[in-house]
UniProtKB/TrEMBL annotation:
One Pfam match: Lipase_GDSL
Transmembrane spans: none
Species of provenance: Capsaspora owczarzaki (strain ATCC 30864)
GO terms classed as biological process: phospholipid metabolic process
Top-level taxon in the UniProt lineage: Eukaryota
Gene3D superfamilies: SGNH hydrolase
InterPro entries, per the entry: GDSL, PLB1, SGNH_hydro_sf
Annotated protein name in UniProt: Uncharacterized protein
Lineage: Eukaryota, Filasterea, Capsaspora
Gene Ontology MF terms: phospholipase activity
PANTHER family: GH22081P-RELATED, PHOSPHOLIPASE B, PLB1
Amino acid sequence: MIESRGPVYQIPLWNCTAWAGPPPPPATNVTQLHIQDIKVIMAVGDSIGAGFAMHSGPADEPWALRLIEYRGDTFHMGGNEGQYSLANFLKVYNPDLIGASVGETLPLDAIKWKEGVIEPFVPHITHLNAAQSQAKIENVAKQVDYLIEQLNTTYAKTVNMTHDWKMLNLLIGANNLCGACFNRSYADPDYYEQTLDAIVGQIYQNIPRTVVNLIALFNISQVHTFAMTSEYCRVMWKDIVKTECMCLQGDATDADRLAMDVRTVEFNRRINLVASRWQAKQLLEFNVKVQPFAQNMRIPSLSYLSELDCFHPHAYADAAFAIGLWNNIQTPDAEKESDLNPATIGFQCPTKDTILY
């Protein structure tokens, strides 16, 4: 068993309720969107979005039972009953919401072998969560392709592509940042920005009536501080998962971790630049918003990191992320919180007139 992992703060009880009486008229353009207007929820991203190892158990549990993506519990797309997630919060106001994930997958389920041995996704579990473990930003275009294909086949009878409003959550960049200290080409800010802009363009061209939430990146290197307080984590990082993020783990130095920090700030600046360019187009049926709830978050304790690798978010963190994202989408840009604090977080409940931002 691993050592004490530090405090876990009480997650507040869900206290928002669906309102009585008729809702406002359906939105006719993106500036009028209300909570209940969202019919479809989707996601692209990496292992954080896939929920890798968020419920991993004791250190002596067989490894084969711990290498799991808990997609049904992810902060943005989880559809498991009772789970805190943006998808489940939205369902309170639109019970017919489509796209949330349920259940679990193995990371290998996200790999397409040349022989076709392993399918790229398990659609009855992933639904419209296309996030893939180990993905970098250059892998996201294929994830969007998967969503387009699913919307036009599996969901052709339940989703009206030209009429139904959709929300797509995009969180990507952690694996790119893990190459920052080596000046890898995939960690270059220009490359990140150009690729992100192209992905947004791909979504715009193929998935109409969509709001894209660009989720700002948090400071990944801070997990090092807590990992070093645990003998189990030190062994994991030094000998077992030392290549998971080489600017952070293994033989990485303080200078390597600082390079990640500096690049994270720049990546977030580029995320905002991409969003600003698309907002300037003033499109009536498409918008791109930055949701910065965790951008300046300080991890409160080791308990918020996976018990498997001391790197990925634990379920406690995902629950807090869910509330932060939920609050962000209801808050005007200038007022959005960016320093999520699990010790003080609370629910912001919408009214009939609440607009999505």
